[in-house]
Specification:
Distance between the termini: 60 Å
Number of helices: 3
Strand content: under 5%
Radius of gyration: 26 Å
């Protein structure tokens, strides 16, 4: 899953969970059934999980281009610069 796919999944998950919560509350309130409210919300959580957790091809529209292994030798890893202050010596 690419970065844009992760952002889309996050937004989709939040929208779906909030909408299922609103629908579940309204239905539970109208029917006067706490059990029905919980069942509707639990179904929404399961459906949201099935849509957002798997790595669907829809979420891989912008793949990252990784550096080719042969190009790694051409671009060495940067070295840390030595600090100008030296450790103080301890006298005995």
């Amino acid at each position: 899953m690419d970065w844009q796919g992760q952002k889309l999944v996050e937004q989709l998950m939040q929208i779906m969970l909030v909408s299922f919560a609103v629908v579940a509350f309204a239905t539970g309130y109208a029917l006067g059934s706490f059990r029905m409210m919980l069942l509707i919300y639990a179904g929404g959580v399961v459906l949201t999980t099935l849509i957002t957790v798997p790595n669907w091809p829809f979420f891989n529209r912008h793949p990252l281009k990784w550096l080719d292994p042969s190009a790694v030798d051409k671009h060495p890893k940067p070295q840390l610069a030595n600090s100008s202050s030296k450790k103080k010596s301890i006298k005995k």
